[in-house]
Amino acid sequence: MDHLLRAHAPISDAGWALLDSEARERLVVALGARKLVDFAGPLGWAHSATNLGHTEPVVSTPADAVTARRRQVLPLIELRADFSVSRRELLDHDRGAVDTNLDALDDAAMAMARAENIAVFHGWPAAGITGIAEASVHQTVPRVEDFNDYPRRVAKAVEVLLGSGVSGPYGLAVGPADYTAIIETAEHGGYPLFDHLRQILGGPIVWAPGVRGGVVLSLRGGDFLFESGEDLALGYDFHDSEDVHLYLEQSFSFRVATPEAAIALAAE
Q1: How many Å apart are CA 102 and CA 89, to the nearest integer?
Q2: Looking at the domain that runs over 6-60+72-267, which CATH code has it been given?
Q3: How many CB atoms lie within 10 A of CB 93?
Q4: Are the beta carbons of 237 and 246 closer than 8 angstroms?
Q5: What is d(CA 220, CA 260) in angstroms, rounded to the nearest whole number?
């Protein structure tokens, strides 16, 4: 039986199509980390750990003259965001309504995206995940509030990466407030800041809810590894006379293979 139990929900095929489409639309925009790191998978709900390729010694063995080593793995983390949808709203959709209220699903999708972005860029110690900014061996480049100075800061970050032998192209992940400031800023002469930064980076500027400040990282590949077990999926929990209680779920691991391949930009 599918562990998501979708067949048990009082939701029509058209209703599930609506929910899946809405979740996909929200998540594709907000999952900024996936646009910049290496994504492997999905490997399935039963996939439980990432092979790290390392071992550690086992102190004692069952027999003399035998040695042993334990394989090291990184367990996958399961993330779940619960929400509910009105049964009346779903029935109205089946009747042809086009204004179905899915605010709760939107909120759950944004919460899931923020959690994933934070784990990738800033870490999640309780889950054994070290983020890109924390793993970086480089001193943080300060970011001043005047975004007209932002190109110089990004150019400095790129220079540091090049000096460490880390080739491009490079990407920039920023939170919503910084992204808005970049979009709205025109430099002297009216040249858009967004375009100038893309020329410096050679790669994208990514809107990533949850990111604090910014992170410049190489897109050459092999440096930042995201492994998906179950990719983001909608599941059914239970229902009552008024609402259907659902959840958004995924499992993943993340690790930094090359700490020198990224550098953080932080506000002064």
Answers
A1: 9
A2: 3.30.2400.30
A3: 22
A4: yes
A5: 13
How is residue 105 written in tokens? 């699903």
pLDDT in tens, 102-159: 999 999 999 999 999 999 999 999 999 999 999 999 999 987 777 888 899 999 999 9
Q: Give whole-number Cα distances, 31 to 59, 121, 155, 206, in Å.
A: 43, 12, 25, 9
DSSP string covering 20-72: HHHHHHHHHHH--GGGTSEEE----TT--EEEEEEEEE-S--SSTT---EEEE
Beta-carbon neighbour count of residue 87 at 10 Å?
17
Weakest-pLDDT range from 48-62, 101-115, 159-173, 188-202: 188-202
C-alpha–C-alpha distance, residues 107 and 104, integer Å: 5
Angle 161-163-169 from CA coordinates, rounded to 5°: 40
Domain boundaries, the chain: 6-60+72-267
Q: Are 48 and 76 in contact (CB under 8 A)?
A: yes
Name which of 79, 78, 75 is nearest 51 in CA terms: 75
CA distances from 114 to 26, 142, 253 (A): 12, 23, 15
Instruction: Return the residue matching tokens 């900014």.
Output: 133
One-letter-per-residue 3-state SS of 220-255: CCCCEEEEECCCCEEEEEEECCCEEEEEEEEEEEEE
> CB-based contacts of 147: which residues, under 8 Å, 6+ apart?
181, 182, 185, 193
Nearest to 117 by CA among 32, 220, 5: 32
* Residue 215, H or E segment: strand 214-218
